[in-house]
Amino acid sequence: VYVYTNLSRRRRGIDVLVCTPCRRGWTFFQDRCYFHSRALGTWDAANRSCASLGALLLQVTSLAEQVRDDQAWGTSMKASSSWMGLTDQAREGAWMWVDGTHSAANARYWRPGEPNGGQKENCALARQDGHWYDAPCMEQHHWVCEGEP
User: Fold this and answer.
1) Is the pTM of this model over 0.70?
2) Among 24, 60, 91, 138, which residue carries the largest CB count within 10 Å?
3) What is the distance between the alpha carbons of residues 48 and 9, in angstroms, rounded to a whole number?
């Protein structure tokens, strides 16, 4: 079931009706809806915020998703870095997505030398440069939620 939100955009003095399968304030890109927070928060606060919206912190499980997300960020990501749904808080070095899946196959997306924070940096940031970085989970950053239309 799709719920379409009607938005009006002005182009060359003409109102254009735009329909999107995402809620107001979310960005539709390919087959997913993205919410880019305006607020800052810790990783845990970001995770709770996404859950309260019926979504997950951003997850990237394939090259196609990384490319898709890079393209989406190029057009709509305002923050230079945002929390994503990846953490090794449960066990050092065992990076897991918020849905409980392992991220071992995604090592190629870390910036060279990352993750490098040991027990001090247990949460992942996605940056506009397309790389992932580990950071202290208590830092304040924007976040990206990902959900279905």
Assistant:
1) yes
2) 60
3) 32
Query: Which tokens hold the place of 41?
Result: 């928060």
- Cβ(146)–Cβ(56) below 8 Å: yes
The CA distances from residue 34 to 14, 20, 93, 113, 140, in Å, are 27, 12, 28, 28, 20
Domain ranges, ordered by start, for the chain:
33-147
pLDDT in tens, 56-96: 999 887 655 655 555 555 544 556 889 999 999 999 999 99
CATH of the domain spanning 33-147, picked from 3.30.1020.10, 3.40.50.1370, 3.10.100.10, 2.40.170.20: 3.10.100.10
Strand locations in the chain, DSSP E?
A: 5-11, 14-20, 27-29, 32-36, 56-57, 81-87, 96-97, 123-127, 132-135, 142-147
Instruction: Quote the CA–CA distance of 122 and 138 in Å, as a whole number.
Output: 10
